[in-house]
Amino acid sequence: MGAVPESTPPPRPAQPPQPGASAVGLQSSSPQSSQLPVGIMRSSVRGPVVNDGEDSTDSTPLLQGARQAEAAPACCSARYNLAMLAFFGFFVLYALRVNLSVALVDMVDSNTTLAENRTSKECADHSAPIKVLRNQTGKRYQWDAETQGWILGSFFYGYIITQIPGGYVASKIGGKLLLGFGILGTSVFTLFTPIAADLGVAALIVLRALEGLGEGVTFPAMHAMWSSWAPPLERSKLLSISYAGAQLGTVISLPLCGIICYYMNWTYVFYLFGIVGIFWFVLWMWLVSDTPETHKTISNNEKEYILSSLKNQLSSQKSVPWIPILKSLPLWAIVVAHFSYNWTFYTLLTLLPTYMKEILRFNVQENGFLSALPYFGCWLCMILSGQAADNLRAKWNVSTICVRRIFTLIGMIGPAVFLVAAGFIGCDYSLAVAFLTISTTLGGFCSSGFSINHLDIAPSYAGILLGITNTFATIPGMVGPVIAKSLTPDNTVREWQIVFCIAAAINVFGAIFFVLLAKGEVQKWAVSDYHGHKN
């Protein structure tokens, strides 16, 4: 990882621009550019492309004539240390987010309003007899299916509020403090979950919304940090490593929560992960810096490599170009893709444990392991797809936009197909788990698709852009569980087929929209001195 791609013969020097003409305009008419395939460029030096219009031809980022510093080794480097600490941060973040999904199964009295909370009888009971005596000391609550839907969705009411402000603040003061205190706040609130549940549904909903406020700043803050830390040809690797922690957090926390609920009681789920989050915060504040310039132990070689690779990609203007940002079609392509992907992701994230219990009829211990299996596949896919994406760009000279489109198509169309298939195989437990696992696994390709396209089109404002797209992408987390619960009042296989088909259709639409309108080069509004760049 982090190795310099083999250099290819440098192109012939471009003709100097005529007075009054932009470099962008000359590139499209130069004989050299007309001989190159669309979307593929070859050069021994890399830099940004600035798009002088929404409809210009995309190409791999280049900066003709710029001196490129030798790539610093990845092993023990400051940028990969940041990626690993971010990995564990998002591990904790998603453990704090999904723990309620499993604990809620044990928190609710199964006898509450049988018409709404009963387990489906369509499928045979798959749970094997458990000989170990189960701990049942945890308090049970009389919450019907609709109430459970609002509790699960309440997190996102706070989460949606801090997305854009989080991106804006991170662009001004850096992401270190914002990300650190966001996770710390969520961890502290998590410790109070058992008390809030005792106080009533309203108190628990408010507490979960407050947790959402803390988590809402985290992804924009991380994107803002990577705009200063990630060399363009290592973006897929570094971001996929850091954000893959979210998937592994789901993988570990779902079965672990099931075990804790089974052998202890559900209250310990919140105590454990709250304490882990506080411990991570201490490490983060001690070891991380906002930029390479302020890092205390980074080598001069690595610092020069990062700064030179990002030269001319970042804007020097202090004001945020809000109007051009909101008018940018490539941004709206990411918005639609992000919204569509999250509809499926959040529906499964919050309701998969319930589906396992009430349709496939696994007990809470098996439920945790099998609910986590799809996210293990997604975690593995994210890591591998990040490596593949950057190799395609660096070694095979595939254009950035081509890579983003291909990975987004695989990561959205593939899950849609297998999600529908999972709904139509009935009570075949093995196939149901296999199809749900494949569906979620393929979604990992999106981590190198639309998920990091913000950094391609506007590195300086990546945090703000992610805040905008994640604001829209949070809506499925708010309404998805509620709609799914309302569509499955009797918990029948046919009702869940409708839930899966709706999610699949939204996924397909988002993938097509992104492919048609997405871009892979720095947009003209994202740099203040773009007239000096060559497209």
UniProtKB/TrEMBL annotation:
What is the designated name of this protein? Sialin
Which of UniProt's keywords are assigned here?
A: Cell membrane, Cytoplasmic vesicle, Glycoprotein, Lysosome, Membrane, Symport, Synapse, Transmembrane, Transmembrane helix, Transport
Q: Name one GO cellular component term.
A: apical plasma membrane
Give this protein's Gene Ontology molecular function annotations: symporter activity
Q: How does it sit in the membrane?
A: Multi-pass membrane protein
Using the UniProt record, give the first listed, main subcellular location.
membrane
- Source species, domain of life: Eukaryota
Transport is among the record's keywords? yes
Transmembrane residue ranges: 82-105, 150-170, 177-197, 238-262, 268-288, 329-349, 369-386, 406-425, 431-452, 464-484, 496-518
What PANTHER family would the database entry show?
SIALIN, SOLUTE CARRIER FAMILY 17
Instruction: Give the residues annotated as coiled coil.
Output: none
Q: Where is this region: Disordered?
A: 1-38
- Work out whether the entry's keyword set contains Transmembrane helix: yes
Q: Where is the Major facilitator superfamily (MFS) profile domain?
A: 82-522
Comp. bias (Pro residues): 7-19
Q: Which GO terms describe its biological process?
A: carboxylic acid transport; monoatomic anion transport
Compositional bias annotation for Low complexity: 26-37
Report the InterPro entries cross-referenced here: MFS, MFS_dom, MFS_Na/Anion_cotransporter, MFS_trans_sf
What subcellular locations does the record give?
Basolateral cell membrane; Cytoplasmic vesicle, Secretory vesicle, Synaptic vesicle membrane; Lysosome membrane
Its recorded reaction(s) are: 2 nitrate(out) + H(+)(out) = 2 nitrate(in) + H(+)(in); L-glutamate(out) = L-glutamate(in); L-aspartate(out) = L-aspartate(in); D-glucuronate(out) + H(+)(out) = D-glucuronate(in) + H(+)(in)
Q: CDD domains given for it?
A: MFS_SLC17A5
Its function, per the record, reads: Receptor for CM101, a polysaccharide produced by group B Streptococcus with antipathoangiogenic properties.
